[in-house]
Amino acid sequence: MNLSQWLVASVALLAGLVPCAVVCLRGDACSRLVGLEMGATVDTLVLLLLAEAYGRVIYFDLAVALALLSFAGGMVFAVDQAAPPSPPSAGCSRPRRSSSPGATSRPSGPSSTRSCSSSLPAWWGSA
Q: What backbone torsions phi and psi does residue 91 show, to the nearest 5 degrees?
């Protein structure tokens, strides 16, 4: 088996995923985000090294796609952790499903005119 320096370096970088996994499993929300982003960076570097080792151009494209998608995934995680869900308000009314398909019944009374926009997080904007 012919081991190039690229393969040896990629295996050495894979060992760097262990601390990232430990941080992701045991840390608080901010530490988990750092572990997630660091793990994605290490994965991207491993894919780049494997692309060079095997001489496949498609692996370079995969590494670029992983870098872009991991950043977007990290931002989704950060937004989700930054705005905890608020409990719904007591007067919130939503249409209820009836037993027949396609038909909805709305509750009657003064609470039927209230909207549920107060149960949305503040960062959602005005509804």
A: -95, 10
- Would 73 be classed as within a structural domain? yes
The reply to whether 19 falls in a domain is: yes
65 domain residue, yes or no: yes
> Splitting the chain (127 residues) into consecutive groups of 10 residues, what average pLDDT does each group show?
84 93 89 91 93 90 91 85 66 54 53 50 59
Phi-psi region of 102 (alpha: psi -120 to 50; beta: other; left: phi over 0): left
Q: For the residues of 56-114, what is the DSSP string, one character each?
A: -THHHHHHHHHHHHHHHHHHHHHHHHHSPPPPPPTT----EE-SSTT-EEPPPSGGGG-
35 burial (CB, 10 Å; 0-12 / 13-18 / 19+) is buried
In the chain, the number of structural domains is 1
Determine, yes or no, domain membership for 17. yes
- The helix, strand and coil proportions of the chain, stated in percent and rounded to the nearest 5, come to 65, 5, 35
Q: Which domain holds residue 30?
A: 9-82
> For the chain, how many residues are written?
127
